[in-house]
Give the backbone structure.
Amino acid sequence: MLALLQVLLSGLVTGSLYGLLALGIVLIYRTTGVLNFAYGALAATSTCLLYILLTGPRLPFWLAVLLSLLFALLLGAVVERAFARPLLAAPILTKAIATLALALVLQTLVQALWPQLTSPVHFPTPFEGHALRLGGLYLSLSDALALLTTGLLLIVLQLFLLRTRLGIAMRATADSLEAARLMGIPVGLIFLLVWILASLLAAVAGILIAARQTVIDVQFMDPVLLLAFIGAVLGGLDRLEGAVLGGLLVGLAENVLALLLAGHSLGALDLGNPGVREALIFAGFVLLLLLRPRGLFGGAALRRV
Amino acid sequence: MSAEWQTAAQEVRQRRPLLEVQGLTVRFGGLVAVADLDLRVEEGEIFALVGPNGAGKTTVLNCISGFVRPSSGSIRLAGQDLLALGAERRAALGIGRTFQNGQLFSSMTVLENLLVGRHSRLRAGLFQSLLPIGPARREETAARQRAREVLTWLGLESYADRLVATLPAGLQKLIGVARALAGEPRLLLLDEPAAGVPLREVAALAEQLRRWNAELGLTLLLIEHNMEVVQAVAQRVCVLNYGRKLAEGEPATVLREPAVLEAYLGREEEIGAREEWEVSDHAAG
């Protein structure tokens, strides 16, 4: 019983991080029509910068985090202006393929600038080795921080999108670009803000994931992004809450499967292998999509944002 | 002296058209969608733009709203050059519009749709509006109030907090109008307001259009296929064919001109078929 609770707790942590990433993916997809496969690379770039700031000039941790987030803000703005804006009118598939190129460019740049990140390196944080005990449950400090941060961010974002005029303008732009322009919404500015916001979310998620894994390299976000994408698609790709719920579901499934499969084997195949778990998640995802092509929450009368 | 001056100014204003389109030409590649079109829409008038499919009506509307850049010509609203401004900046001058396919913010509530519609009337910037207190906040409260008034005026107040996507199509059409009216436009562009409206409700729609015109002093420029509506509401009508003006004037005379009948209204059987189509369309939906 306690083991199950422990697994659910770590599922919640993983899931909330997937949810945060899925949220950024959906935000960009809905407003600018870009299926952003470079989202992991965006997150990794800001996180790698943090690593460099921590290990090179040895800046205090929180100062380095602040600088990395400022960089993420700038990165989002540059990518929007130089990459997304010129492609605005391109077909969805063209834009999606272009993001693969963008991911490659970002990863190559990081590797060229900081060759040490080509292979796994230790990501130092002040939380490493600290943990909380809740009854019989064990929660590492980085996990607790991840839960707290993602929870807070999701609440603030929801309030921002539902209650403020800027948030309402963003949702309007996502719903109908033409009508929003006609009502006088500066849609160019909205695009810029959406990319900045998404890049910030990516950086936060990247940093939290790096703190959990304690080891990163330039591609450390790639497997995570795949699972976050599954979360986004499960949520219906056009709903923000759907994205968060989809991400949570994937995280929970991943951890519960790990518990169920550990120590079992099928012939020579060790079922505890993480590869088996991922294969099962992908298979389940394909099956779900066959049954519900619009995602788990697509079509339900949920409030769309 | 001021009274005299005001009367004089009013006369000048009355003589100057609200919307003035001159020599408007739009080319898409080799295709001439609109050719050398002149239009004058007077303040307070209901003006209809009609013509067969592909005549260039929607293109004209898109030029006025700013989605299409004409190859040549000029468009002025109350004397101000519109083509120098992007679509985002034209709403503030007093242009409202509805779309044939709605283009509503369907994942938002009705009230939120109207708030966005009112955006161009607010002076505080989007960033300023993030502050929890101050003039921007007061302005927003006033905007919500005004949006509710518009809803009440149109008899939609009970739907204020409903999600647009959950409402029936007929209601959504009206919400499109409400959203445009929330911006308090001087000129309202209506793209086929009667499309998809069941025949028995067409007369009521015409009545609504006249009411908006009379009670709000709103100038209406509408594209319409339904001649019943055009005859009932339009003071003047312009017939387009292949992007050119075929005729212009009062509906009663213009719609009887032989050239117009030949180009557009002559095909009686087709018009009959279209109307049946609309009815069955509605029954199916």
Q: What stands out?
A: Residues 2-32 of chain A form the longest helix (31 residues).
